[in-house]
Amino acid sequence: MRLNNLGLVRTNIERPDPADVARLSQFGVATIHEAMGRVGLLRPYIRPAYSGAKLCGPAVTVLLQPGDNWMFHVAAEQVQEGDVIVAGCTTESEDGFFGELLATSLTARGCKGLVIDGGVRDVADLEKMDFPVFSRAINSKGTVKATLGSVNVDVVVANALVHPGDVVVADVDGVVVVPRELVGAVADASQKREDNEEAKRQKFREGVLGLDIYGMREPLAAAGLEYVAD
């Protein structure tokens, strides 16, 4: 009987319809987060390693041990075209788990980027490669290959639970996780929100105030807001 999920690699995970992932990729993190009911965000300390980085794809999850990047090499074998790696750690660690060599290996497998609750290095090379990375830290500190973690198990990354096959979207505004079975519905809801915001945007361009667009005057008055012309 297993007492934990360490040393486990799941080789067969479900992924969402690629067409739904493509539709979802058209929207920003803020829009998706709002469309889902303001859920799904990773903690805001996860930031792009370089300006302009963004990604969207099904998660191949990795559970790392502190200061040890062995499981990235195991995970590379499980990556399919369009996937992203999403890596958590058994405890907090900001060591430089990931760099240009691993990015080169993952790119050859069709990987579209990395989200990691840990450190990365070789950032200039990652930017030249256009391999998007979102991380807890940038840190040159090296790691070893000695302790088993896991691949394609549920992981907690920056306070968000990520299941293998969930879609992760990341841009300058942050990182959001969309459950695999909801990707199509969230893409629909995101499009609806975008359409609604465009209608409001046009009104703002015409000079209409948010006070009137959102019907704020009556509740403000009821709350006691008072205009005084002194």
From TrEMBL:
Homotrimer. Its cofactor is a divalent metal cation. Its EC number is 4.1.1.112, 4.1.3.17. This is Putative 4-hydroxy-4-methyl-2-oxoglutarate aldolase. Gene3D superfamilies: Ribonuclease E inhibitor RraA/RraA-like (3.50.30.40). NCBIfam families: ligK_PcmE (TIGR02798), PRK09262.1 (NF006731). Belongs to the class II aldolase/RraA-like family. SUPFAM superfamilies: RraA-like (SSF89562). It comes from Microbacterium sediminicola. Pfam families: RraA-like (PF03737). Catalyzes the aldol cleavage of 4-hydroxy-4-methyl-2-oxoglutarate (HMG) into 2 molecules of pyruvate. Also contains a secondary oxaloacetate (OAA) decarboxylase activity due to the common pyruvate enolate transition state formed following C-C bond cleavage in the retro-aldol and decarboxylation reactions. It comes from the Bacteria. It catalyses: 4-hydroxy-4-methyl-2-oxoglutarate = 2 pyruvate; oxaloacetate + H(+) = pyruvate + CO2.
